[in-house]
Specification:
The chain is mainly α. Helix content is 78%, strand content 0%.
Length: 110
């Protein structure tokens, strides 16, 4: 690997680590969560869904790059595709329904 490739990979790794860290800090409702204005706080179900999608990606991507034609890789690709599609559809069309279900269950939305 050359220096620009290492720099880009390092930057992406730092970005991924910081995004996950901030999401977890917000989900724990710590100091960062209390500093945010109530109307700017992200919905908890959105953060959970994004973290789950990221976890599936972390498992899928290395397997797919090392063994692209194996049964496990194809199964994980299908699983990742389904999760990615469902997350996108939920964000686009069913966010009102997800908000309603969260409120109905008695959990806080934000």
């Amino acid at each position: 690997m050359e220096l620009p490739e290492i720099a880009v990979l390092t930057l992406l790794a730092v970005l991924a680590i910081s995004a996950v860290s901030v999401s977890i800090l917000i989900l724990h409702r710590g100091r960062l969560y209390r500093k945010l204005q109530p109307e700017s706080r992200p919905r908890r179900w959105v953060l959970f869904l994004l973290l789950f999608l990221f976890a599936v990606f972390i498992v899928w991507f290395p397997v797919w790059t090392m063994w692209p034609h194996s049964l496990v890789s194809r199964s994980l690709t299908l699983f990742f595709g389904i999760i990615f599609f469902l997350a996108g559809i939920t964000f686009k069309w069913f966010s009102g329904l997800a908000d309603w279900l969260v409120k109905l269950s008695g959990r806080p939305l934000r």
